[in-house]
Amino acid sequence: MPTDSTTVHSRRERVRAATVEEIKQTALTLMRESGTAEVRFTDIARLMGITAPALYRYFADRDELLTALVADSFDSLAAALAGAQESVPADDLGGRFLAICSAYRSWALGDPQRFALIFGVPVPSYQAPPDGPTAEAGQRALDHLAALVTDTARLGRLGPPLVAPAAPAVPAAAGTLAEKTEHCADGLAPEIYQVLLLTWSTLHGFVSLEVYGHFNWLDATTLDHLFTTQVRAAALVAGLVQPA
Amino acid sequence: MPTDSTTVHSRRERVRAATVEEIKQTALTLMRESGTAEVRFTDIARLMGITAPALYRYFADRDELLTALVADSFDSLAAALAGAQESVPADDLGGRFLAICSAYRSWALGDPQRFALIFGVPVPSYQAPPDGPTAEAGQRALDHLAALVTDTARLGRLGPPLVAPAAPAVPAAAGTLAEKTEHCADGLAPEIYQVLLLTWSTLHGFVSLEVYGHFNWLDATTLDHLFTTQVRAAALVAGLVQPA
DNA sequence: CATGGACGTTACGAGACGTAACACTTATGA
DNA sequence: TCATAAGTGTTACGTCTCGTAACGTCCATG
């Protein structure tokens, strides 16, 4: 007999949650095997040993399931980035940066379909809810990088970016960045936020091309070195590390 | 009465080519309206005033149509990059670089669905032919950037990259790059080819995130400035321009 | 004018989504 | 203890799309 309805779940709720989890895991399995589009209710049900209409007791339609998968993927990415940082001393900023970038890459390469689910074109006729959990979860994944940049600035080790900040003569732009800043944990300065974005896009560019196979003609060793170079370049441009 | 079967096409062939073109254009229209996945033979046929099975006289199946669209998109991107360069003096290397990058971005923003078609996860259950025209067309689009880097090196204006080339101690990696080099027009040195790839991925990262809406919370002016900054940073890192 | 090929049509089967109606299980409460 | 209600799963069904098959129709060629 459950006593607390908020923290303790009834048996029914636990079973239901387990079923939801099984559905999502089965969908992920199918996605990894056959691509993002091959998430068929029919197949999920068959793998689970039930019939397709039963799934509609848990997800209103295909979009709702995909939305859940996207949200979970953001969580997974955020967890991967967080875990990578924990294995590096907090004051080793260069190491933390490399760890974050490597974790981003490893996560993407280890689960390309989920990467595509998050950062690619959504999926056949799937439109992500504009203000749903998706957008917020994306911010969360990015916040790890933001935290690193903030720490670097706090420790006084953030050098001037090699390229002058954009839009110095246009206060409106800075204002816009400042708005976003408030949403961020500790009120990053616009310049720092810009550094963060450019770093992210540099990192993302390499990983994205690699994941989608546009570097397939290079061998793994070469790719590793190229990635390291790209990360070092990004850190240098951002002022996260000092030129040698 | 057609005389030359290689250059002159019969009336039938011309009509057929026009129909093929109309099918592709209609598919693109649908794709731009409703997303990459909404390319239904039924809808294409309805818009064209014919019935769906008629389309199978021109494309064996959905994949074949999509492959054609991908190939055309690469052509379009390559043409956009080529056109951008023509409007800039050949010896204005910085200008050419900015022009290429801007064209890349403009092309992507002007037709996000085609960008996704090329660089995203292919499409519902669509697997690009491994050695089909797709891969080669991708190289062609990239060759414009390669030509620029080559020209810069020829004119002796390619400074040393700000970040040491990757894998200096691993000849195998350089060998791999050298292999690819032979495929390229003029035998780029491995270092130069690396610069090209890193530049491309930096450019692609920003554009990709922007196209897929991950920068939606920034206004257009801010984005323009950020893009310029990103491009300048890439050029600097690559050694395409000298530090001030 | 007869023939063959290209083009388009209707008819059809397979498969996936999503709904409706029904049956079984489980928790709750008089 | 037993009746009721909610939750879960099933079968049956309608709709849509893909892709094939079989059948006309038009036009170019001899």
Explain the overall architecture.
- The structure is a homodimer of 244-residue chains.
- Chain A has 244 residues and is an all-alpha fold.
- Chain A has helices at 11-34, 41-48, 52-55, 62-86, 93-110, 112-119, 133-154, 171-183, 190-211, 220-238.
- The first copy, chain A, starts with 10 loop residues before the first helix and ends in a 6-residue tail after the last helix.
- The first copy, chain A, is 67% helix and 0% strand.
- The first copy, chain A, has two domains: 1-59, Arc Repressor Mutant, subunit A, CATH 1.10.10; 62-238, Orthogonal Bundle (Tetracycline Repressor, domain 2).
- In chain A, helix 4 (62-86) crosses helix 6 (112-119), helix 5 (93-110) crosses helix 6 (112-119) and helix 5 (93-110) packs parallel to helix 9 (190-211).
- Chain A contains ten helices and no strands.
- Mean pLDDT of chain A is 80; it is low at 1-7 and 166-186.
- At the A-B interface, helix 6, helix 8, helix 9 and helix 10 of A face helix 6, helix 8, helix 9 and helix 10 of B.
- The structure holds a DNA duplex (30 and 30 nucleotides).
